[in-house]
Amino acid sequence: MGIFKWIGGVLGFMIAPPLGAFLGYFLGSIIDSISDGDESTSNYDNGNYGNYGGNANTHSQGQRNSFLFSMLVLASYVIKADGKVMHSEMEYVRRFLRNNFGEAAAQQGNQILLRLFEEQKRMDAQNPYQYKEQIRQVCGQIANNFSYSERLQLLAFLVELAKSDGTVPEAEKRALYEVAQNMGIPVSEVDSLLYLDTGSSSEGSLDDAYKVLGLSPDATDDEVKKAYRKLALEHHPDRVSGLGEDVKKAAEKKFQEINAAKEKIYKARGL
User: Fold this and answer.
1) Which phi and psi (to 5°) does residue 54 adopt?
2) According to DSSP H, which parts of the chain are helical?
3) Global pTM?
4) Predicted pLDDT at 79
5) pLDDT tens, residue by residue, 220-244
6) Taking the chain, what is the end-to-end CA distance rounded to the nearest angstrom?
């Protein structure tokens, strides 16, 4: 069935705990639902799984699917950080998957998130820190399997998810900092991503543009240039091309916003 095709691509890449444990739980619950007569997953067989199909080798497909599954596991943690599951956040995930990976991925992603919420509730009932510890270990596994730029793209998705309901509660911000640190990414990258939309827009303030680069307005010209070069190198779309063209396109948007923030600062300084 389609769901097994999608999830199966992860098994050969991140089978070790704790992601392997999440996969085992999810596959077990799907098998149970099929045994109970729920065959809804068969509707996904003809879905669009993106453009990785026959043109990508097995490792690339596994890496791409592992990126998606990792994204959903971390999304379950950020969404529930403030104790609520907002419709706007769930819709953001569905829309992201639908736009970038097709309708089948959107349906499957929604089902995976619901299962992950159930697993988080089960773990928290036993120990309020158990799911948090599992996420910490997941982040460590991600850090060992993905490049820095790929992890940044994952963090960028989580930041946009947190912003999708119009505000970022402190609990969600703390969860983002926590995830970033555990993936080996400075928390300053979270702040930069939080200001990316306003700092790059024509209506945004110059101060916000500086925050995108992780600087204060009293930074020297050399510091501005150095900060921009660092961000441009880390966020360059070519660095996530191994995850597929659609992920690369999502990265291109961030890259353009970083450039727009830089241009706003350069213009103000006459550079």
Assistant:
1) -75, -10
2) 2-11, 19-35, 58-79, 87-101, 103-126, 130-145, 148-163, 170-182, 188-194, 196-200, 206-212, 221-234, 245-269
3) 0.72
4) 94
5) 898 888 888 888 887 787 777 766 6
6) 57
